[in-house]
């Protein structure tokens, strides 16, 4: 499962994508747990998960066919 990352997350892991091997489907909450285990440098990082360009909650099921992204908080002015 390929997940696009941006901003501070991208800087911390040194890549613009995360590749996870989690099977065919998983909840967003389970996905976050896998990310924090595989990328301990993201511990404490705040982000939302986008599935097919829409924010989703932790109980949403995602599959390897979905377009996924981790979106950190953004400030502007």
Automatic annotation (TrEMBL):
<dbReference type="InterPro" id="IPR003749">
    <property type="entry name" value="ThiS/MoaD-like"/>
</dbReference>
<dbReference type="InterPro" id="IPR016155">
    <property type="entry name" value="Mopterin_synth/thiamin_S_b"/>
</dbReference>
<dbReference type="InterPro" id="IPR012675">
    <property type="entry name" value="Beta-grasp_dom_sf"/>
</dbReference>
<protein>
    <submittedName>
        <fullName>Molybdopterin synthase catalytic subunit/molybdopterin synthase sulfur carrier subunit</fullName>
    </submittedName>
</protein>
<dbReference type="Pfam" id="PF02597">
    <property type="entry name" value="ThiS"/>
</dbReference>
